[in-house]
Amino acid sequence: MSLADKKQDEALSPVPSNVGQVTDYSHDAVFGEITEEGPNYRNVGWLGTAVLMMKTQIGLGVLSIPVAFDSLGIVPGVIVLCAIAGITTWSDYIIGVFKVRHREVYGIDDVGELLFGKAGRIILGTAFVLWWVFTAGSGMLSISIALNAVSSHATCTAVYVAVAFVVAFILGSIQTLGRISWIAWVGLSCILTAIMTVTIAVGIEDRPALAPQTGVWESDYKIVTNASFYKAISAVTTIVFAYAGTPAFFSIASEMRDPRHYNRALILCQTVVTCFYIVVGVVIYYYCGSYVSSPALGSAGATVKKVSYGFALPGLLASTLLFVHITGKYIFVRLLQGSRHLTANTVTHWVVWLSCTFSVAIFAYIIASAIPVFSDLVSLVGALLGTPMCFQPMAGMWLYDNWGRAKRDWKWKAMVAWCGFVIVAGTFLMIAGTYGSVIAIIDDYKASGGSAAWSCADNSSS
Known about the structure:
462 residues, mainly alpha, Hydantoin permease, 16 helices, disordered N terminus, transmembrane, membrane, AA_transpt_TM, L-amino acid transmembrane transporter activity, transmembrane helix
């Protein structure tokens, strides 16, 4: 066995789950020595990995899919959703392949450095942090909507956003994904229950909550719509947001006990997510038509709305704390990588760790308070940051590993063409989607007189 093969086997070897209780230790290409003196950063099984993957996606994005279908129509909506699912699944797969070949890679900024040098690291690293901070802001906003719905707007919405910030910071500061995975299990079960409750309820009830409550009513769903460009492209980027857990898969794969099981976790994740999105999007939009609410949990009657948001709260909280945790962990690793403080429970370790999670949480709180229109925030984040996190870098990763391949057969040429398509499509969606989202936000602010930021108004009635 060559030295290179031996190093790869060592890098891929699973870390014992009992590290942290005994004196055994293992060396990890990212975290260094994992010993009993600190947290075990390599303790997530493949099922836990699949749940963490699903939880980074199912939670916020799915709540806007019926609204996206309202802009696109059922048939174009399903086609776009399946296309986005296919591209992001390929991107997710490439992450697993790249991670095996380059075990030192922890985040997308490492990919940026391999592809474009120091400038690539700075650009993609900054985009990664901004992406997850904005996503955490979306999560806090969704929690405030849920609290308003359950409590019948018992207090100012700004207070609920602050509550979401405090809880997300505290739970997001749990040190490892292995310790958080049980929360992801609970959160996933709760959000699935909440969404299925609404999906069943809209099919049973006479009409959705936002529809006229008198006279004969019939759903005005459309097979194909004639939406304006900015509305259609905003709907597409909303669907991108629903699949944009991709950049977190680097961090999740890094904490797997055995990274060789990555693909089985990915297949389970994407199969469940895609089937669920299609069923929920089609059924809710079919019965609600243009009267679907955003988030979709408010589409049924008042009682179902309270029940569904009650179930959804743990799921929305689990998503938000994951966003805070992953972003804080990324900054934390970058600050302490190569130092003993990274994997030892020292004072420096805890001060830096809590400072990272608090900073992420407070910036997310500011975003949630400043752009308090859920669908607009989801669309903006999906366009501006979601596409460049899920499309272009993964095409670059394949080209990086395969461009110099000696055998340039038709398969190689087809993959080069595919990578070119992914780069062009991602760039178009980023530019056009950002334009559409900004126009939508401006229109909403004009409608509200610009007074919506840090508002006390009930945000669960839209």
